[in-house]
Amino acid sequence: MNQLANKYDFRVPRYTSYPTAPHFHDGITGDVASDWLGALDPAEPLSLYFHIPFCDSMCWFCGCYTKIVNRYDPIAAYLETLLKEVDLIADKLPTRFKAEHLHWGGGSPTMLTPKDWQRLIDRLRERFDISETAEIAVELDPRDATEDYIKGIAKAGVNRASIGVQDFHAEVQEAINRIQPFEVTKQVIDWLRQYGITSINMDLMYGLPHQTTERVIDQVDRAVSLAPERIALFGYAHVPWMKEHQKMISEADLPGADARWEQSETASDRLVELGYVRIGFDHFAHPDDSLAIALNNGTLHRNFQGYTADKASTLIGFGASAISSLPQGYLQNHLPMKSYTSAIEKAELPVARGIAVEQDDLLRRKIIEHLMCDMAVDLKAVAQEFDTAPENFQAELDRLQPYVEDGICTLEEFKITVNEDARPFVRLIAAAFDSYLNKAAEPGQEVKRHSRAV
Ligand SMILES: C[S@@+](CC[C@H](N)C(=O)[O-])C[C@H]1O[C@@H](n2cnc3c(N)ncnc32)[C@H](O)[C@@H]1O
Ligand code: SF4
Fold first, then answer.
1. Of these four, 68, 200, 226, 340, which has the most CB atoms within 10 Å of its CB?
2. Is the pLDDT reported for residue 450 higher than 70?
């Protein structure tokens, strides 16, 4: 498999949506969004996502949409805009909807004061029916999560936290501009548990500068000593043509394709050895965690936050750059903060682009989601669901032939299975069904705007 990581060192999407974001276009704006929101089925509960695009220092590896601020004023102003967006969207909905999943991401939601946190959640409880059992999750940066903050969010109802760690080694931390001693991470986890936020995910990374397989194993052991319920193990996506600050990372210090492969696979094996269930290609969970249970039940999904047990058909994203997924298609908010704010000031939905989904998109999305979540798909079953024939996928099956020959996947009748030791290649298998990508380039050709497949 190691040699194959070099052979198939292609750039493909991460498939957190299908069609993927580069295919969104500006023909979809606020008016379309307004119609789509107005036509939502009140019987279907919503998931809500809030993007907080602020941090107090830049990690050189960061691929997220965020801005460095050292005053609270811009964050306070952003919160006012977010509150207006909540009202704007709630006004477009046909009724007061139930919300069962709420997620704060960024950037660093830790940048909000507990008081502003409470204001936002109070407004949400006013405008949406947030059930007692709702999952309320927050991504937090341990370097600025104080005890008061954790106490505050726990009081506001947060019951799940995802904390950024990346790597515990000083040399790596220095190279990525993120100094975060082990004790800081441990203290935050202790506070989370103390205040009742007991479902904890930890983000780790491989492929960072100065990382070696030994170091990645050691960081896995240290992470597991803190017993998080979930661990995400992300491969560093180096895209300096899109993220200028990544140029601060010297490419000479980055592990190559085969070293990345070894780091990813050795760390994954270690996590499995330590009792975690492998979820998709980059997540791990305790066997009694809802992600592992969803995997077992065949109800695991993939959305913009990665793997999820959330089965809501509608996810509404709030904040600059946030993406919504509606039954009719995807919407993305303006990304320059100025355009986002000015649309809301004019009482317009701040939608910059999107894409309406056709039947063929839904069919391919289902195939891709099965592959990404279950590492297998039965084309016959999916085709039947969509009233079509699996034979229509002959071109896609032909594209998979080199992967079958190299032992990456097997093909039995119309059932595709990604081999256990080839999980990191799943994005390549999924890409064979991506008709937008295949219009632009045959798989096997490098598609520059995406990150490495492995
Ligand atoms: C929004 S941050 C998490 C919360 C908080 N801002 C923090 O860093 O602690 C999301 C996660 O994405 C991952 N990430 C960010 N940039 C990445 C990149 N270029 N490649 C792969 N993963 C990346 C990191 O693991 C990070 O913890
Ligand atoms: S990794 Fe997290 S803390 Fe670091 S810059 Fe990105 S969003 Fe901010």
1. 340
2. no
Percent of the chain with pLDDT over 90: 90
**Cα Rg of the chain (Å, integer):** 21
Ligand number nearest to the C-alpha of 231: 1
Q: Walk me through the domains of the chain, giving residue ranges and CATH numbers.
A: 20-318 (3.80.30.20), 358-443 (1.10.10.920)
Ligand 2 atom closest to Cα of 107? Answer: 7
- Residue 112 confidence (pLDDT) above 80: yes
Is the peptide bond preceding residue 19 cis, with omega within 30 degrees of 0? yes
**Kind of pairing between the strands at 351-356 and 376-378:** unpaired
The alpha carbon torsion through 61, 62, 67, 71 (nearest 10 deg) reads -70
Q: Which residues pair with 137 in a beta bridge?
A: 103, 160
Ligand 2 pocket, residue 141 CB under 6 Å: yes
Cα of 55 from ligand 2 centre, angstroms: 6
Task: Report residue 447's pLDDT band, with 50, 70 and 90 as the boundaries.
Answer: very low
Q: Does residue 166 line the site of ligand 1, with CB under 6 A?
A: yes
pLDDT for residue 243 is more than 60: yes
Average pLDDT value for residue range 127-141: 95
pTM for the structure as a whole: 0.94
* CB distance 53 to ligand 2 below 6 Å: no
| Nearest atom (ligand 1) to Cα of 205 | 25
Judge whether residue 293 has pLDDT over 50: yes
For residue 138, how far is its CA from the centre of ligand 2 (angstroms)? 14
Which helix (H) or strand (E) element contains residue 78? helix 73-92
End-to-end C-alpha distance for the chain, whole angstroms: 11
Element (H, E) at 309: none
